[in-house]
Amino acid sequence: MHSFVLDALDTTGADTFSHFEMLIDEHRRMTDQLSAELNSSGCAQPSIGNLIVPSRLKQLVPGVGTFYTRLPLRKAFEAYNAKYGITKRRYVCISFNEIRHILNLAQIIAMIAPYSQGESCLNMKVNGMSLGPTTRLSASGLIENGGTIDGRNNNNNNSNNKGGGGERTMRQSETDNKVLEAWASMGDTPRRDSEDDSSGDSGKNKVAESPTSSPSRKPIERRDRSDTCDVEDSLSHLPTQTSLPGPKLICFDGDQTLYSDGANFEKTPKLAKYLYLLLKHGVAIAVVTAAGYEYQADKYEFRLTGLLAYFKERKLERENLERFYIFGGECNYLLRLGTDYKLHAVREDGPGGWMTSTKYFSESPGNWSEEQVKTILDKSEASFQQSLKDQNMRARIIRKKRSVGLIPKVDEKIPREALDETVLRIQTELEEAKVTLPFCAFNGGRDAWVDVGNKRVGVQVLQSYLGIHPEETLHIGDQFLNTGNDFAARCICPCVWITDPEETTYILKSILRLAGVPLMALMYHSAGEEKKANASKVSVGGKKVDFEEAGRRSSRVSMDVYTGEYIKKMTN
Ligand SMILES: [Mg+2]
How far is the CA of 257 from the centre of ligand 1 (A)? Predict the structure, then answer.
């Protein structure tokens, strides 16, 4: 039985997620079969993201994305429920944001502790996780209330031991349990939307549930400022291995994912630390952002001020620095961090150039002509002009080399509805015009843009350039509605949908924790030391990274994030 009906969740909630798992498994199986048939017949094969199969899931959700991994949804739900007791609620049903959190958890579990093909979720339930509806995780993360580490005391054993297929090994089971115990021992999932609800402004700061509306933006991130911490000494708790299980490449959106919308990476030391730890353990990091300042490296550096200062103070080594990339303009300008802790353009052409080496796939920027680019920009500009006029928007249009933007005039705000209308209109017009290049028309929260290229291409270029497979790649972003620019990444890799930098921080902490990094290495110091007077400084091998100072430095000058122009601030 499956449903999300209150009072029945205790008995139906987990089965509902098993049902979703089964639908996804069926969809993946049919996609794999079609791919194999096309391969054997010698037909030109589209990418797996473009294959359309008549699965039940596709019929129920026509816009469903591509699944590059299986998703242990039941396991994620049970772990989430054990931590937060959502099936015990009597008046408030499971929310969209909670489902989003569960899907995110399932995705990172799948990448860190993948379970084998052909294994049904029912088997997993029998011989895998011991977490059942009545099982709880204690504050220390240990399983209690009758659950055992190998699941043999699971109340649902008998009723679900009919799935057939191979049994999981004890080793796999133990791995799974360790992974979820690690997650359970972490702090709570950021759920500021709930706090906002309690203030009576229930619509504010929530991910919009309408498939065509954009999530509203949160105010400038401030929480991490008070969380500035003296955590670095605990790096001695790090495991000695150089690489961790899990994604080999993590791509990040910029605005509202790594830093607040329109702001810079300044005062988020926890996030800086987790990015540092990932690089240190062999993960490639790429900021794949709509922000496009061509190859003016200083403009991207300005947006990443605090992060680059952190890397510099920690003396991040060359081989780790060189795994940090930024892809500006979605997929147009590729830069890499150098040993001087500054960004440098990656060579486009010639042997080893990123454009040259990715020309084998048709959508690569290396195959674009300036005439095709001009066609998209001309049509977009004309459409924006018409939208501006029709909706009396207090906005102006700016055109760059690879994008056109509709941005608010000074001190004006464009309503979300007007931005969504503008975006959906131009999406339709460009599709009807059958433009030949990939593009991305999106609502940026305060503005609307059409970029030539999109994040699907950006991530694919990175995968190809770095030799990393889609299932080893994770994209993290905040704009996964069909008017958002992270939406396109769903076609090329697993994704995690967050709503603000605080959630990004939590996801990275989860990845590191699930991958085996001890909690001590991720936590603050002991309670007594936690709130030292110099709480805004992070100890770095005897030195201190002063995030307040990093913020002050960049606050003396600001940058128009639309145009990239520097603005010197007036000082008293
Ligand atoms: Mg964003």
Answer: 6
What pLDDT, on a 0 to 100 scale, did the predictor assign at position 51? 79
Q: Among the options 224, 253, 261, 447, which is catalytic?
A: 253
Q: Output b/e per residue, 198-224; b: 16+ Cβ within 10 A.
A: eeeeeeebbbbeeeebbbebbeebeeb
- Choose among 513, 454, 503, 447: nearest CA to 477: 503
* CA 561–ligand 1 middle distance (angstroms): 13
- The CA 253 to ligand 1 mean position distance, Å, reads 5
434 vs 183 pLDDT, higher one? 434
Q: Where are the alpha helices (DSSP H) in 42-95?
A: 56-60, 73-84
What is the rounded distance in angstroms from the CA atom of residue 47 to the CA atom of residue 457?
A: 12
- ∠ CA 513-514-515, nearest 5°, is 90
Taking residues 127-145, report their average pLDDT.
Answer: 35
Rounded CA-CA distance 271/379 in Å is 40
Query: 404 forms bridges with which residues in the sheet?
Result: 399, 450
286 within 8 A of 254, measured Cβ to Cβ:
no
Q: Are 564 and 289 in contact (CB under 8 A)?
A: no
End-to-end CA distance of the chain: 67
Contact 227, 453 (CB under 8 A): no
Whole-number average pLDDT of the chain: 79
415 conformational bin, left if phi > 0, alpha if psi -120 to 50, beta if neither:
beta
The Cα–Cα gap between 303 and 262 comes to 9
SS3 123: helix
- Cβ–Cβ under 8 Å, residues 266 and 547: yes
Q: What is the pLDDT of residues 517-572, one digit of tens each?
A: 877 777 643 334 344 434 445 444 445 566 666 655 556 677 787 777 877 765 55
Q: Residue 2 class from Cβ within 10 Å (0-12 exposed, 13-18 middle, 19+ buried)?
A: middle
Establish whether 546 is a catalytic residue: no
DSSP 3-state of 466: helix
Q: How far is CA 344 from CA 297, 298, 324, 340, 538, in A?
A: 6, 9, 11, 10, 27
* Structure tokens belonging to residue 567: 């603005």
Number of alpha carbons in the 13 Å side-chain half-sphere of residue 142? 4
Instruction: Report the pLDDT value the prediction gives residue 562, as an integer from 0 to 100.
Output: 79
Q: Which of 255, 447, 486, 500 is catalytic?
A: 255
Q: How far is the CA of 478 from the centre of ligand 1 (A)?
A: 5
C-beta neighbour count of 342 within 10 angstroms: 15
Q: Is residue 541 classed as helix, strand or coil in its secondary structure?
A: coil
224 annotated active-site: no
Q: How far is the CA of 258 from the centre of ligand 1 (A)?
A: 9
Rounded-to-integer distance, Cα 109 and Cα 120, Å: 16
- Domains assigned to the chain: 1-112 (no CATH), 370-452 (3.30.980)
SS3 category, 390: helix
pLDDT, tens only, 394-445: 999 999 999 999 999 999 999 999 999 999 999 999 999 999 999 999 999 8
Q: Are 515 and 251 in contact (CB under 8 A)?
A: no
Structural contact between residues 507 and 104, judged by C-beta atoms closer than 8 angstroms? yes
Summarize the confidence of residues 272-293 as an average pLDDT: 95
Q: Helix, strand or coil for residue 558?
A: strand
Question: Which alpha helices (DSSP H) does 137-211 contain, by range?
Answer: 157-160, 170-184, 192-198
